[in-house]
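We treat protein structure as text, and this decision shapes the records that our systems exchange. Because each token names a local backbone shape, the row as a whole describes the fold. For reference, a complete record is included directly beneath this paragraph.
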Amino acid sequence: MSTQNHFFIAIPLPEYLIEEMSIYLKELKNEFAFTRWVHPEDLHITLAFLGAVNEERMAEIKDSMTAIAQDASGFSLKMSGLGTFGNPQSPRIFWHGVVESAELNLLRDRVYEACEKIGFDLDRRSFHPHITLARKWQGPVFQQNSALSDQARTDTFIVKEFVLYQTHLHKLPKYEKIGIFPLKQE
């Protein structure tokens, strides 16, 4: 029996930062004319988008992700920079970046490799770690200027886990944690 829900693997933000980001998103909404803002509890850094997953593959994913987590240590990430994807004058995604991290890249590579071994056909674009804040620009021509970088946060947080999420398109928050994979803490 297969499910038509979509699943992805991602790093969640810590609880304290979700609260701070909730206030931050309200401030940004007053300034940027995006139509769909991400619920603060849905903020994350995607490692792999899986799409639909049947029960057999679900067990394989959970087993593989557990093995990866048991062999990986927690690490810190620093937020840095705001940017967009899509047409620069009418972007489809507004995001907050993170500083380049060897630990993050290694974790993403291991997750990707395991998912491909299970048989998932994953996106081959280069990894650009980010936290999606909003979608669908609906205003005059978008101006990406130095003021944008002045509004970026510089929080540092510890990545203690990664998560298998299920998407629920008609609920808020949209993403449900189906599997939590704690990293070793040193």
Summary: Helices lie at 15-29, 55-70, 102-118, 146-150. The first strand starts at residue 2 and ends at 12. Strands lie at 2-12, 34-37, 44-54, 75-85, 93-98, 130-137, 156-159, 161-167, 175-182. DSSP finds four helices and nine strands in the chain.
